[in-house]
Amino acid sequence: MVQKLKNPAVFFMGGSLLIFAIIQFLIETGRLNAYWQTILFWGAAMTMVSLGLNLIYGFNGQFSLGQFGFYALGAYTSADITWRWVRGDPSGLIVVIGGSVLALLLMWGVASFLKRFYGVSVFTEFVFHSVATIAGFAMALKFLRPLLGPVIYSLIQALPEPVGRQIVFFLALVGGATIAGIVSFLFGIPVLTLGSDYFGIATLGFTIIVKVLLDNSDTILPFPEMKGARGMVGIPKWTTWPWVFACFMFVLLFMRNLLHSSVGRAIVSVREDERAASLMGIDIARTKILAFVIGSIFAGLAGGIRAHDLGFLHPTMFGFLPSFNPLIIVVFGGLGSMTGTIITGFFWVFLLEGVLRLVLPTGFENWRYVIYPLVLLLLMLLRPQGLMGRYEIPFLRQTYPPVRKPGEVKA
Amino acid sequence: MSEERPVILEIKGLTHYFDSLKAVSDFSITLREGELVGLIGPNGAGKTTVFNLITGVYRPTAGSIRFRGVELVGLPPHEIIRLGIARTFQNIRLFPNLTVLDNVRIAHHYLVNYGVFDSFLRSPRFSKGEKEITELAQELLEIFGLADRQNDIAGSLPYGMQRKLEIARALATKPQLLLLDEPAAGMNPREIDQLMELIHFIRDKFNLTIFLVEHRMRLIMNICEWITVMDFGEIIARGKPEEVRNNPKVIEAYLGRLAIR
Lengths: 411, 261
Hints:
heterodimer, B: alpha/beta, Rossmann fold, six-stranded mixed sheet, 10 strands
């Protein structure tokens, strides 16, 4: 028994299930009020976005400021799906999910077609994949919506209401994450060939584009329900603690298992020395896109969680200034440390929106933005490598095989 | 005797400009399997540029590079490596924050046949692949006497070991042709002797063809079968070590200063 507890995986899973049970108990008995619940869920969402950024910046070395753009995409996409669904319109669900499947299939076809040629230019690749994506979604809009819409709607409606709702919510989260992934893939093809700094600027541009498009979503884009700069209201509040926990654990385990594999080592080698990595047979472009897409999927998933907790979305939530928050969290926690990101991700929301709001006297809430930069400044002076440096708790730490004795026979 | 062996690398008319500066001009060379060929020349003669052109870091302005009949010009570096060419660097380029073992395992990456989802699910394919490349890497480290340091951070190794690790990492990509870029840089005479032994040993052990860029006469004159001499991007002489040593053009360009010593 004691031996088992020493196994980090058992210890970690047991510990997280315990935390899950305690918080679930506190929520059930009403001891954790709606305010702190929101803080907790928000912290989880921010941590998920930041883990994604840490994968891109901390582990792969690509400086991205665009994660809030993907967070926004995930939030608005999943919110649109459920918003329409509760008003009896399945088209959001059908177009996003069906379109994603078709687009991915077409992109896969395009990729295997382009693989036959050597030296395909980045521009060609981008155009082909973009056309495939647009074709996929256009087909979903044109054919799948009238064809499958009523069928799927009546099918899910036939199920008991709570079950149907969970299915739709799950699909909405998946849809938001997939859209974020597809867009980051398309955006990443041309932009990731730039050097790291230029990539940062380009992704910052992406966040701004998303913000501007959302500001005008009811005029430029055909989404009147998003209400542009007035903010989207009436999103069903379906986010519950089990959902938050499940998504968070998915992100955490996915990232951990990815990093502790050959693919993860390839990702880290690109950060260490790009040219040496390519001369060790690692496909740099592919590795960078992989890390970028996975990080953006995490952001999209977090967006869905946040949207259905708040029930309200506004473009300023995803503006220029908040888009630096994941970066602050990642640097604060330590580049290349998952543990650090998890701690600071929750701590950041907890401090800024939780504790400081209560501690500061009324009317002084905005002093939060004086206190927290001061904390940041102090930390950067005292611990420039971040709170945790590259420390990881045992479960998240890479394990190494024991040293083989010379001459030992292969098993 | 080596004339009968099949050709492994054939470079013809290789020319490369950096803007208007001619770095390599009409460079041609033929390597046969199992040979140990040296490329020498004064600083800035374009030796490392030739290596960068072979491995696809730069795309040549003109000329062709054929490796076992496959044209390399236009291929990205990682595909050239996967065809069976490996190289080391003039100034060591390890992954300094990773362990010794991981440095080698990264070079094994393209041999791995599991993907992202296998690693997420920890499928049997993942465990099998991971075990395989770990064993391969450990075997290599044993050959190079680095087995007991496998879990040390690569950047913390002493200089000579880092050189060895770099060669081990290059061999992990399973090459047939190994390009060594100044492997003796920064080594003392005793270490150079060990290095010569090592180079002979790995050539026989892994059936390699070795193409070597070097400054240190001692190394190159002792181990190379054929030597090509470059100056200002052009080949000025080629032949067996003793022929090159006595070539007046070479003495003028390069060896002259050293021969006095």
